[in-house]
Structure formats: C-alpha cells, structure tokens
Specification:
With 138 residues, the chain is mainly α. It has four helices and no strands.
Length: 138
C-alpha cells in the first residue's frame, strides 16, 4: 500500500477500528466475568431464600385452609407436626416479649377463625383473649 493515497488510510483506519472493537469486546467480557464472580453468590443466596420463603408460604396456606375448614371459629383443629415444623422453621417474627414467634401448636389449633390468629399477630391480643371479632369486646 502506498501511504500517499486515501484508500491506504481507509485500510489502516479499518484495521485500527477492528482492533478497537475487539478490545472493547474483550473488556466487556471481562466486566461480565467479574460481575458473575462477584454477584453469583448473592444471586444464589437470593434464590435459596426465595425457595425457603415459598415453602413457608405454602405451609401457611395449608395451615390457613385447615383453620378455615374448622367446625367452628374456636374449635380445635389437628395441625400435623410436619406442617407446624415447616411454619416454625421459616417464621422469624417475635412476640411482644422478644420470644419465639406465635407458632406454637395451641396458637394455630385454637381460635384463628374468631380473630385470634390475625388479630393476635397484628395487635398482640385476639379472639380467645377478648378480640372484638368474636364478640370478646377487644
């Protein structure tokens, strides 16, 4: 190529632009690799936590259906230990005393239909202990 023609500069320019494009591509690939290495553990943790919460909500749905289908609002229900264990495992809320959450067997077995469950969690009182939902006047 003769350096005194425009065509030769077009060829040189095209080669330089191709090398620049490859360099940008390599840099983008490196950034993606760094991003994956740094963020993959966070993504995996988020995925696991999401699956754990999904199991928790599935257990809660089963529990609420048991309570809903109880003979009466304050009638006892038979909560399977496996189901209760699943709820306890993922429930991280605390009661007013800072103790474990309201996931003991008696809490779920009695009174959710009369407001005990929902009101007790939200306001610290409920059905069996005077909630207005069942006429207790709370």
């Amino acid at each position: 190529y003769h350096l005194h023609t425009r065509e030769s500069y077009d060829i040189i320019l095209a080669r330089i632009q191709a090398k620049q494009k490859k360099l940008n591509s390599d840099a983008s690939c490196a950034i993606c690799c760094i991003f994956l290495i740094v963020c993959a553990p966070c993504g995996l943790l988020m995925c696991k936590e999401s699956k754990d919460k999904e199991l928790y909500y599935e257990a809660l749905i089963k529990l609420v259906k048991l309570r809903k289908n109880a003979a009466g609002p304050s009638n006892a229900i038979d909560v399977p230990e496996e189901l209760l264990g699943q709820v306890k495992e993922y429930d991280t809320r605390k009661n007013g005393d800072g103790q474990t959450s309201y996931t003991d067997g008696a809490f779920f077995s009695y009174g959710a239909g009369c407001g005990y469950s929902g009101v007790h969690i939200a306001a610290g009182g409920g059905g069996g202990c005077g909630a207005a939902a069942c006429g207790g006047g709370g």
